[in-house]
Amino acid sequence: MRKVFRLINRLSSKLITYKFICYLTLWRYVLDKIDKVSIALQQKDITLSTASILLKSLKEDLLKFRLTEFENIYEKAKEICDKMNISPEFIAKRKIKIKKLFSYEAEDEGNRFSEKEKFKTSFLEVLDSIYNQIETRFENLQVINEDFNFLTGHSITNKSDDDLKKNILKILMAMNYI
């Protein structure tokens, strides 16, 4: 039984690192934003324009996070590490030794960046992928919303008859009915 506890302690000390806490903190932020939008999109009384606005705000939040909020994650992760008595430093992996053949093959590309820079680069790639998936999957929703938004009750009551006729003609022309 003691062997099992020692094994668990050794594994947890190797797995739970500052980098791991940073990943958890980042994913918590990103998935929390996505979850809120997902729950809102599943409501049965949601309109097309509301869904479009929610997705647009999600994309803006992810972009804002990518550009400005990323550094705050390190501080939040550091606070968590302090509470858990974990060293708030990125632990460098063993450097890969490469046999020097020619001068242009002498250095390993991965050793030029710090562990923090590697971490940020890898997570930004994932964040960019999420952003692009949202963009491509819902671009048709945006187009449909722009084309048919004039049919909502608010737009019908506030637009003039000429504007409504222009919108209807625009859709009919797009559908090749005219």
Structure commentary:
The chain is mainly alpha-helical and 178 residues long. Helix content is 72%, strand content 0%. It has 7 helices and no strands. Helix 2 (18-41) runs antiparallel to helix 3 and helix 3 runs antiparallel to helix 4.
List the helices and strands and how they pair.
Layout: H1 2-15, H2 18-41, H3 48-84, H4 115-137, H5 139-148, H6 153-158, H7 161-174
How many separate structural domains? Answer: 1
Average of the residue pLDDT scores: 78
Largest sheet: none
Residue runs with pLDDT of under 50 for 5 or more positions: none
Strand content: under 5%
Summarize this entry quickly:
With 178 residues, the chain is mainly α. The chain is 72% helix and 0% strand.
Pick out its properties.
mainly alpha; 178 residues
